Amino acid sequence: MNVDDLRDLAIFAGLTDAQLGELIDGSTTVPIEPGADLFHEGEPADFWWVLVDGAIALHRKIGREDTVMGKMDVPGRWAGGFRAWDDHGVYLASGRGIAEGRVLRVPTDLLRERIDVWFPLGGHLIKGVYGTARAIESTARQRDALITLGTLAAGLAHEINNPAAAASRSVSALDTACSSLLSSLRGLAGKVSEDQFGRLDSLRLELGSRAAILDPVDLADNENTISDWLADHEVERDWLIAPPLAAAGADVEWCERAADVLGDALEPGLEWVGSTLAATTLLGEVKESTRRITELVAAVRSYSQMDRGSIQTIDVTEGIESTLVMLGHKLRDGTEVIRAYGADVPRIDAFAGELNQVWTNLIDNAVDAMDGTGTLRITTRTDGDRIVVEFTDTGPGMPPEVAARAFEPFYTTKDVGKGTGLGLDIAQRIITEHHGGTITITSHPGQTTVAVRLPHQPATR
């Protein structure tokens, strides 16, 4: 490598040929080979890598997955070199070649020495700014992650608590119903014949086929009517028998036919029917509650993508739906969600877990912008060789100067303590750097749309 290779790189603007020569003399030219690693995440950042030509993908290990965080594909982009100013600096990602080329590998000792000689004040500023910015960004990102995690955890706990509490109540009531069922069977023993019991069971099945659906007022009136009929026929436990009979659609005429079948065994016979109906209803409630819990667990699994690799062929609507479940507690009170999913939208190759982070930020921001009350319209469609996902809210909108800065790191319009300004910045990085897509905002009062455009395959692998 010679001075001519570096002279036109923007990062070396202002350096003389002699200074560039000093840098080259103490450095090494390393060829870039597709698939070959140049440096590894977590190892001491003892070298400063400056791209001359070719391309390098930056990978990080997240859990058990190797995730592409970005790429160096513009001459002059660099990585590493942190130990020039931080004795504990390590590579934040691994560098892997994706296109043939060359990179200048500069030892950090040489980098620090040359900067101290050429720009002594600059060296001190870099060290101070590097340390301060790194600490601030790390703290802010951790705080943002904890806030998001806390919000999702609270919402999920609320979502699971409702069906879990319903299942618990139903199981408790089912215990009472089963005890009543056994008690009624003891009361029937020896008092009814096989024929009578068969006819009673037919009457019970008849109620099941009616599937009566009454409004609360009519149901209460029917329950009172049956209770009065039971009291007139000296049935003592009318408070236990009347509700399930009324809910199943029984009426006085049905009760009269049951009385003709049962004779002196009227109370235990009707108690058996009522207990059987109550047990069936309660079992249905337990089944529905546990089904809802299973769906929530499946949504969490889909949202976290904990059983999938980094790149998957996905249907974006599945990720959006699982995100809506995770944020259900914020959408229930006053937000109407309109889904306008295109039937012709194809499945795409993407980092599913990362896209779910984007959907979370965009939906959460939209709900906050509407102050929890309004309409959120989610649209998916095709646009040439890309798919488009749009989130449109009916909030007050953004002034042009705010929309222009919306994707800047740490820029937020939320009150102190309610936002870090990292949500849209992270969303933009995921969409542009990891997927080769775009994310834009158009806004005016009453309608703000964030549009995400994604290719069928991510930009890097």
TrEMBL record:
The keyword Nucleotide-binding applies. Keywords: ATP-binding, Kinase, Nucleotide-binding, Transferase, Two-component regulatory system. Its EC number is 2.7.13.3. The keyword Coiled coil does not apply. Residues 11-72 form the Cyclic nucleotide-binding domain. GO terms for molecular function: ATP binding; protein histidine kinase activity. GO terms for biological process: phosphorelay signal transduction system. It catalyses: ATP + protein L-histidine = ADP + protein N-phospho-L-histidine. Residues 286-458 form the Histidine kinase domain. It is an enzyme of class 2 (transferase). It comes from the Bacteria. InterPro entries: cNMP-bd_dom (IPR000595), cNMP-bd_dom_sf (IPR018490), HATPase_C_sf (IPR036890), HATPase_dom (IPR003594), His_kinase_dom (IPR005467), RmlC-like_jellyroll (IPR014710), Sig_transdc_His_kin-like_C (IPR004358). This is histidine kinase.
